[in-house]
């Protein structure tokens, strides 16, 4: 039994390196997309201190809006632009209806408000777009389809073109957001708000404007993630479960760290693919569904602030 757990998987990796590369590639793509979703959580948490439980359903809602508009006869790129407008209006509505009335309330109140937002978006999405799964408009958006087979390491490794596009687009967005945080005036204002709301207000930074910008940025991230995940499977409310895989990513990387979201996403994505492929047969499969949360639990026990999070010491 110990041989099967600790030795045999590594023997399989050495014996079939092409399969190892395939598993690593699939895990890398999933990890980059997890990191993209996690960035939506990080953006909002850094600027407002609110853990946005609704980020998962925002991924679904954005993708449903895009596909729903296209099904109603709107050209694909016009539907994409209109979806961005919808996400901006959602950001404004959240700031006006949810955040502004709850300023200075305990964090748990704001957290529960995002629960309410989650179920509102589920109900509103089902009312407007229906509850049936939909196909992502991949071809209409110009995203590539098909497979590239590469002979390497004594075997064949398959690269889905949509996975390559997803990895490239997600990486560009992650890099752009990192630069935005570090180099732009708005990014510096976001970091100031994250450090102290009162200090930010004292130097003339508008919390209301910052919150709208942050929620809109999180909406753009949700739309990109929804397009990529929808292209890999389909657009349905089940995508919310996939989006919530970002929670273990946040635990690993730290709730306020953009680099942490990237590293945490890669660890979770690669880890669950390797676990499913090499250790899954030992437990009957299904490791992908729970391994990420097991890793997160281990981090909570031994390093609750995550790899890149700041250790907060409170004196009482």
TrEMBL record:
Pfam families: BPD_transp_2 (PF02653)
GO process terms (BP): amino acid transport
A molecular-function term among this protein's GO annotations: transmembrane transporter activity
GO CC terms, sorted: plasma membrane
InterPro entries with a match to the protein in the record: ABC_transp_permease (IPR001851), BCAA_transport_permease (IPR052157)
Bilayer-spanning residue ranges: 20-43, 50-70, 76-99, 108-129, 162-181, 210-229, 249-270, 277-302
UniProt subcellular location: Cell membrane
Assigned protein family: Belongs to the binding-protein-dependent transport system permease family. LivHM subfamily.
Name of this chain's protein: Branched-chain amino acid transport system permease protein
Organism of provenance: Camelimonas lactis
Organism classification: Bacteria, Pseudomonadati, Pseudomonadota, Alphaproteobacteria, Hyphomicrobiales
């Amino acid at each position: 039994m110990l041989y099967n757990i600790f030795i045999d998987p590594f023997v399989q990796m050495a014996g079939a390196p092409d399969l190892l590369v395939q598993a690593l590639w699939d895990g890398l793509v999933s990890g980059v997309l997890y990191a993209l979703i996690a960035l939506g959580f990080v953006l909002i948490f850094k600027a407002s201190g609110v853990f946005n439980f609704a980020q998962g359903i925002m991924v679904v809602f954005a993708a449903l809006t895009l596909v729903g508009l296209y099904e109603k006869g709107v050209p694909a790129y016009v539907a994409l632009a209109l979806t961005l407008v919808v996400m901006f209006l959602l950001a404004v509505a959240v700031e006006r209806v949810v955040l502004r009335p709850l300023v200075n309330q305990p964090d748990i109140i704001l957290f529960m408000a995002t629960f309410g937002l989650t179920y509102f978006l589920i109900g509103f999405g089902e009312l407007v777009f229906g509850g049936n799964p939909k196909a992502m408009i991949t071809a209409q958006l110009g995203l590539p389809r098909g497979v590239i087979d590469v002979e390497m390491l004594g075997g064949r490794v398959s690269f889905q073109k949509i996975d390559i596009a997803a990895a490239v687009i997600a990486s560009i967005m992650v890099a752009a957001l990192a630069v935005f945080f570090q180099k732009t005036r708005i990014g510096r204002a976001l970091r100031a708000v994250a450090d102290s709301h009162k200090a930010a207000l004292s130097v003339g930074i508008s919390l209301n404007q910052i919150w709208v910008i942050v929620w809109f940025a999180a909406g753009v991230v949700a739309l990109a993630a929804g397009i990529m995940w929808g292209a890999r499977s389909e657009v349905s409310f089940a995508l919310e479960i996939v989006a919530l895989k970002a929670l273990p990513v946040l635990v690993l990387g730290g709730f306020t760290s953009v680099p942490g979201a990237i590293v945490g996403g890669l660890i979770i994505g690669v880890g669950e693919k390797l676990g499913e492929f090499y250790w899954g047969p030992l437990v009957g499969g299904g490791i992908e569904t729970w391994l990420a949360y097991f890793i997160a639990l281990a981090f909570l026990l031994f390093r609750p602030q995550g790899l890149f999070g700041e250790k907060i010491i409170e004196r009482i």
